[in-house]
Design goal:
heterodimer, A: Rossmann fold, Alpha-Beta Plaits, 4-stranded antiparallel sheet, 12 helices, B: mainly alpha
């Protein structure tokens, strides 16, 4: 049984006495796990992370990181965590190397170790070639990698990643996922991340919590969540123009049948077992299957099921997102 | 799970954050150039164009027409018959001869020295120290907007290091600027008094340090809460003019109306300017200097205490 590295209990943040950004959130993250907060922009993900990294004080509730209380032992928490913020926080006027050394100074990593480690980390995130270039010349992906390197300078036990691939192109995003997996594999770091990309949560996280309007709606591993929807969806169409809903319904394991203009949407557990049974049943009655598909539910369906709406803002433009972020930050009181 | 044993320290954090600011500054050649040009322009234009000493040269009296003056003979000693006539041209001529002498006496009594440029150049030191300090305290708004501040807050670096690095950076810049202005002033003709030694320079730095610490602390506290540059900028714009003119930077306060004098008496720039003048162009008056330093120390201590306390509260809230 692994230990809980992060634990929260009724964690709440209210801004300006009336804007509840995080509403009694309770969860725990186990050692060595990648735990994701999935939710649309403005759901309270960043506010939660900011409380956990001791930048914001909770209005109510408790949380601990590696056993240290985030309110009472903030300094201890800060020493053992690494933070990769949503924004590019590196100083643009300094070089990549100078930025990492600055982080090392802030954490009090001894100079000799810091120098060695900075080079190692630059190597890890493939920025060695650019280490003496000013950050203002870096691309978005390079900056993100530099943030990652800065967040690792103190060899943290827990790394907090706030929207680690926000605004990155697909290729860079996949590369970032690889770095994150590498960190867990090589260093056994526990990762807490937020994202509003469904694919990202699905590809990276061991467990996710879907959060909306400041509340956790459901927690579980991506596959658990998908299974909780009641399994797979089979779509079938037959050549004959007859309603066969009842025939399909009588097949074992079939949970729900919906006839949508001659296409039958069938909800079932273990679709690969049920499909042949349905075909067999239809064939016995003399019907011919014209079309057939079997889909496993994606997080998209999970999200839809639990929040009652499709994921907001998934394909939002960067500009719109920035505007929203600024509004949010003002609401947060900066 | 063993916890890493790194010890974040105040001195190292303070040093790292201050060096960061100075590096930013030094890496911007345009910015550095502006820092030198700005005082040069102020001093060159204001100091040289407001050439008050030149008012008192005989040239300014060339067309002076004085009518002949007639005095009854009985006023003379011993009395004479008839009247005595003093030709106006004679009076005009001797006035012209005496004028520059009277002029330097007026200058001396008003400004303490006969050369207005020297007087003004020193005033410029105060002015530039004030603007530099106020503006650089505001850089924290950018740190906040760009997320740098929240990153720093999430590290275990002592909060004091974050605050002091800003104050220290402002102070170092102010001292650098003061040096540049004094050097430029010297080149342009600032007349240093005979009592000036290198020790006086340290005294100047100490005075500049005190004002910078006070002003930057209070501006830091003001800026740290703003998400936008506009708010602290408005405050600067509002108080800059009164601070500049209700002081002895350009003109002695003794000739100002009572209410301006009242402002000037509490204006720290008055004391800074006077302290620097005492240490550079005037024959040193120790008791005045002690009073200047006492006021500046009280000012610095008070504003730094308020500013640092407010910033501290913000960072640890």
């Amino acid at each position: 049984m692994s230990k809980d590295v992060i634990k929260t209990e009724g964690l709440t943040k209210v801004f300006n006495k009336n804007l509840t950004a995080v509403d009694h959130v309770t969860f725990s993250v186990k050692e060595g796990e990648i735990f994701g907060f999935l939710g649309p922009n403005g759901a309270g993900k960043t506010t939660t992370i900011n409380m956990l990294i001791t930048v914001l004080r909770p209005t109510e509730g408790r949380a601990s990181v590696l056993g240290y209380d985030i309110a009472k032992q903030a300094n201890e928490v800060r020493r053992v965590i690494g933070v990769v913020p949503q924004e590019y926080t590196a100083d643009e006027d300094l070089t990549g190397y100078e930025n990492i050394i600055l982080c090392a100074d802030l954490y009090g990593v001894p100079r000799e170790i810091a120098k060695k480690r900075a080079l190692e980390l630059l190597e890890l995130v493939e920025l060695t070639e650019f280490k003496d270039k000013r950050v203002e010349t870096y691309s978005g992906g390079m900056r993100r990698r530099l943030e990652l390197a800065c967040g690792l300078i103190n060899r943290p036990k827990v790394l907090f990643l706030d929207e680690p691939t926000l605004g990155l192109d697909v290729q860079t995003r996949t590369a970032t996922w690889d770095y994150i997996r590498h960190l867990r594999r090589e260093y056994g770091i526990t990762l807490f991340m937020t994202t509003h990309y469904l694919e990202e949560a699905d590809a990276l996280c061991d467990r996710i919590a879907i959060i909306d309007h400041g509340k956790i709606i459901v927690t579980g591993s991506p596959s658990e969540l998908k299974d909780s929807l009641g399994g797979d969806i089979i779509t079938i169409a037959i050549k004959e123009n007859v309603d066969v809903t009842d025939i399909i319904r009588s097949v074992e394991n079939v949970k729900e049948v919906k006839n949508e203009n001659g296409a039958y949407l069938i909800k079932t557990e273990a679709g690969e077992v049920t499909t042949p049974l349905i075909i067999e049943a239809l064939r016995k009655k003399g019907y011919t299957v014209a079309k057939l598909s079997l889909t496993e539910p994606t997080l998209n369906e999970v999200y839809l099921e639990y929040t009652g709406k499709a994921m907001r803002n998934t394909e939002e433009s960067k500009e719109a997102f920035r505007a929203q972020r600024i509004t949010l930050r003002r609401a947060r009181g900066g | 799970m063993s916890v890493n044993e790194y010890k974040p320290s105040l001195t190292r954090g303070l040093w790292a954050l201050t060096v960061r600011e100075l590096k930013k500054w030094l890496k911007d050649p345009m910015m550095l150039l502006m820092f030198v040009l700005q005082p040069l322009i102020w001093m060159g234009l204001l100091g040289k164009s407001m050439n008050i000493s030149a008012l008192f040269t005989s040239v300014n009296l060339t067309n002076l027409i004085i009518p002949n003056i007639t005095i009854p003979g009985s006023f003379a000693n011993p009395p004479v018959d008839g009247v005595i006539v003093i030709p106006g041209t004679l009076l005009s001529q001797s006035l012209q001869e005496m004028f520059s002498g009277i002029g330097s006496k007026v200058m001396q009594n008003t400004f303490g020295i006969t050369d207005y440029f020297s007087y003004m150049a020193v005033g410029m030191v105060s002015m530039i120290v004030m603007t530099t300090t106020m503006f650089s305290g505001m850089s924290i708004v950018w740190d906040r907007r760009l997320g740098f501040l929240s990153k720093v807050i999430s590290t275990p670096v002592p909060r004091a290091a974050i605050i002091f690095s800003k104050v220290l950076n402002s102070t170092l810049r102010a001292i650098f600027q003061a040096t540049v202005i004094l050097a430029l002033g010297y080149i342009l003709g600032l007349q240093v008094s005979s009592t000036f030694t290198l020790l006086n320079l340290l005294g100047i730095y100490a005075a500049v340090f005190l004002l910078s610490v006070g002003l930057s602390s209070i501006f830091l506290a003001l800026s740290i809460r703003s998400t936008r540059m506009e708010r602290p900028m408005q405050v600067v714009n509002l108080i800059m003019m009164p601070l500049m003119f209700a002081s002895n930077i350009f003109f002695p306060t003794a000739m100002m109306p009572g209410w301006i004098q009242a402002i000037a008496r509490v204006n720290p720039l008055t004391y800074l300017t006077d302290a620097i003048r005492q240490l550079t162009i005037l024959p040193l008056d120790t008791s005045t200097l002690i009073m200047d330093f006492t006021y500046l120390s009280v000012f610095a201590a008070l504003l730094a205490a308020i500013g640092i306390m407010l910033s501290w509260r913000y960072l640890t809230k």
